[in-house]
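Aim 2 progress update. The chain analyzed this quarter is reproduced below.
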Amino acid sequence: MPRSSRRRRDGSHSDESFDRLLAGWKRVEVRRGTQWTVQPVSSVQAVKAYTCPGCGREVGVGVAHVVTWRADGVLGDTADLAARRHWHESCWRIS
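Predicted structure tokens:
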């Protein structure tokens, strides 16, 4: 049965996006001494527009890109994932 992202009666919250990002194909890369988790997003999965931190331009709907977040953050996985960023693949490669 699919999980719900609605608030439960006990006040807890099921973060479907956290589960979805942790699942699937991803890799860890090191950039400037920091470990980053990198997960590709296919054009079919890209259903929202984001601003690329590399070039400042829009990563549009339907554009394949990568999502990155720190793999070695001290505040834990939830905080690192909340600070994730969507990059154009080429911008991430040259960063």
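DSSP finds three helices and six strands in the chain. The mean pLDDT is 83. These observations will guide the mutagenesis experiments scheduled for the next reporting period.
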